[in-house]
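Researcher: I'd like a structural prediction for the single chain below. Treat it as a standalone chain; there are no partners to consider.
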Amino acid sequence: MTGSERFLCADAARIRGDSMVGTAPHGFAWVLIEYRGGWPANGFEGLDLEPETKALVFSAARAARARVLLVRRHGRRRSEGPRHWAVLRYENSGAHRQQWGTWSGDEDLAEIAGALGAPGELGCPPVVLVCAHGQHDTCCAVRGRPVGRTLSERWPELVWECTHVGGDRFAANVVVAPDGVYYGGLDARSSVTAVEEHLADRIHAEHLRGYTNLFPPQQAAVAAVLGRFGPAGRHDYVVTETSRDDDQWRIRITGRPPHPTAFEVEVRAHRTPPCQLTCRGPATGSAVDYEVTSIRAG
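Model: Treating it as a single chain, here is the predicted structure.
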């Protein structure tokens, strides 16, 4: 690369062949705050909001281990009218819960703290989040915004652009919440296919980064099962047992008919050579790859 060329982390990751399996951040709750102005590089933390309200939301989200994301509709830059906020919560039973509200003044966001402690409502449609946080990473804008536009044209009520979700080098990244499913390496065409199949409860291994209720080696194990036996519903496979020996894991998974009923997956972790992992972070670092070494029925 010459000095005049721009480094793009997603391009570099594809050239290296970086694996995205097992890279979904662990978590069960999301706080969405519609913000139509410019997004700071550090998202919600960088907003100039009323200090007490901001601190209340931040501390409540941290206590609930919720990820706070700024969101906006693609291409809509109107400034008038109330903005939305939401608390989305994943439950292992599949009975995901949501609570929505609106805010005009900063103090209205204090309601988020109460919503994080409330059960929330059932029966709401999932939310499709597309990372388009260009101030955080160039690839999130270059690759994320075209995906945001395409998905918004197809599902205008479900899709929001959002701030950093993690894994810039896997842009374009899409998160379906509160299902807690991360997809990466998407473009306009593949994103429509992935979301369409997801909404039909058919999750494919291709482009899957992982399920946020699972830890990285468990995510890799489930993705391997989907790759071997084909797409399945979000809760068709369940991790029932995990054991670790140094950098290797043995993970037992059970499935619901018509899928295989039980098998063991062995996963090995190893560190990649140091490289530049993000567009805006010139320092080199290494990542952890999770390699599935065997899948055995029984």
